[in-house]
Amino acid sequence: xGTAIIIGAGEGLSASLARKLHHRGHKLVxxxxxxxxxxxxxxETGATLVACDAADAGDMEKVFAAADALGGPIEIAVYxxxxxxxxxxxxxxxxxxxxxxxxxxxxxxxMAQQAAxxxxxNASGAILFTGASAGVKGYPNSSTFxxxxxxxxxxxxxxxxxxxxxxxxxxxxxxxxxxxxxGRPERIxxxxxxxxxLDPEAIADSYLHLLDQPRSSWSWEMEVRPWVETx
Length: 231
Known about the structure:
This protein has helices at 13-23, 39-45, 57-69, 94-119, 143-163, 200-211, and strands at 3-7, 27-32, 48-51, 74-79, 126-132, 169-175, 221-224.
């Protein structure tokens, strides 16, 4: 097994995915702004930790250099970061909007570029992006998030058309609903409303399902949502 990189690692989905990839035998590189929060996950998985501003090209190069240093091919790259700035269009701070868009979509481009440079010569690998319902449906007072997530989805669709014929599997995941989190009381279900939030373990299983698809029937996009979610 080669190396898997997760940009924007933390609790929840990325931690679930990191553990599952570790159990499959992948070496891991986990990148985040604050790597101190990853100490427990690092001990569980033996991951290499890299401090990274996802929207900084130099930082992204450092992440992939750390992966290169582990030896073997980089087989999987996952992009999780996003940023929101809520508010009406006349109220938004342009600098905050710019920063959010850079994190949500430009950083994904930086990761994909570094990953593709390494995967194209091997004609194999997978690049995965964590999207949201905001990438297919713009909501009021959420224009910044829509710009970022629409851009992310457009990047993924374009790369699928470009890189699938070169043996590199692209996956965009529309996460439509709240993700269960023990650390956030508002993200814990009541007993009378079970499975109304997405289970991060189940989402990670969907990522693995896409990774395991034979190339004769590749998907480039998958939607996941709780059974009670309206759409």
